[in-house]
Amino acid sequence: MMPEGSEPVCTGVAVAEALAAQHLERDAEGSLDAALALATTLHAPGQRERYRLLLERAIAQAERALAAAAEERAAPEGQELAAGGERTLAAGMGARSTLARAHAARAEDALHGAGQLSLSAQRAPTREACDDGWRRVEAIVTGAEAAARAAASCAAELEAGAPRSKAARAARAAAHRAEVAAGAARRIVEERNHAYTFHTDNGFSFGEGWHVAAAAVLAGAAVQIEPGKAGTPQAEAFLRDAGLSDRLQAYRSRPRAMKQTTEIVARAFSADPSSAQRRLRAAFLGDAPIPEAVAGWVDRRLADSRAGEPRRKKVLLWIRACVHHPHRNTTLAELLELTDLVRRAGLVPVLTGDALRDGRVPEGAVDMTLFWKDPTFRQLDMRRAQLQFFEHLKRAHGLAGQVGVTTAGMDGPALMGIPTMYLTDAPNVRMRAWVGAVPGYQEVVRESDYLERVRRGLSEWAAAP
């Protein structure tokens, strides 16, 4: 026999538990509504983080509501209905529907986060930073998939108990959205583009082509060729002639940042500089003799110049005249100083790179600027022919080195073994990776004594056997 007063106490506890579940369900719904109200302002500072905190709160409150409802349903038989069982059932259904919607929102937010992080990972300056970013993307995608499973579970529970209810319909829709978001997030990982783009602009430097091709030769990097450009056939011919056919892939969006290839090349040279240089020379120059068209063009240009003394060593002086970062362009004053230093070292200055815009060719210099625009260097083999230009200068005319403002045009010859001094206003974080790795590659910061450093370097080149 039940002691006097027991029934009201048990009933009161059951009612309290039902009310707790109901209140928690309402709190969860309120937190979710507050989060969803931010949808149009998520781009504003701090709003995305606030949105995520509200989603976490909604999920926690909904889970507590379900736990409270479960406790109430576990009350002794006969007390559940008397103590508000219908309220408990409604609170549980509402909490489960809210939970499904919150998990769907979380999956969609994860899709956004994975997309944004994948973009920044691809733009990372080093391969390690890129791969680390993608590991974080994978973790986010895994979270999206977990959220989708949770939403599907909530929807299945409601489908089993009350398939025609408003809560069940909302949960089904949420589960579908979560599934779509998780699938899209997974495709971001599956469709990751591991290739570096070989740009096909007909300008000499053609972007970072030397770096990209070298990374493919030395580290097996995947390469995609920029399509639909006038230089696309020549670029493909160069890469295939270099033995890289198996590294080429179809062009896709969102490639890796080409800056990463500089560090990849540096690592290969640091490990074994002789082997790295030998492999690049074999790939880029091949084993065939330098074509007569290339050698003859160089020979005639030197013969036509009074300064082109055949028995004296030569030094390339690079001229930069670009719209991009014009403050880095070569000035006439500096060019005249460098020309004088080269001549004082007993060497012949050979101007190359962009056209000289600020004056006539300095006394004693040979003008080979814009050489790549001559038809000799515009054929299908144009990229290899451009490197053969430097190679013939080295073999037949004593090319001792090259000096100039940091420009991609210098990097191909540097990788082929031409001693290099590149000038820069401040230490170049990216290109310094080659200093001490690529043989003969030096950085000269334009400090008060930089011309003295250049002078000493030229003297060493002049004295070298």
Please describe the structure with a list of short key phrases separated by commas or semicolons.
single chain; elongated; Rossmann fold; 6-stranded parallel sheet; 465 residues; alpha/beta; 57% helix; 3 domains; two-stranded parallel sheet
Number of helices: 14
What is the H-and-E element order?
Answer: HHHHHEHEHHHHEHEEHEHEEH
Walk across the major sheet and give the strand order: 5-4-3-6-7-8
- pLDDT < 50 stretches: 1-9
C-alpha Rg (nearest Å): 35 Å
Number of spatially distinct domains: 3
**What's the average pLDDT?**
91
How many individual β-strands? 8
**Spatial separation of the terminal alpha carbons:** 114 Å
Q: Could you estimate the helical fraction of the residues in percent?
A: 55-70%
Shape: elongated
Task: Describe the protein's topology.
Blueprint: H1 6-36, H2 47-73, H3 85-122, H4 127-161, H5 166-190, E1 196-198, H6 209-219, E2 223-225, H7 232-241, H8 259-271, H9 273-285, H10 292-303, E3 314-319, H11 332-344, E4 348-353, E5 366-367, H12 382-397, E6 399-405, H13 411-415, E7 420-424, E8 441-445, H14 450-463
Parallel strand pairs: 1-2, 3-4, 3-6, 4-5, 6-7, 7-8
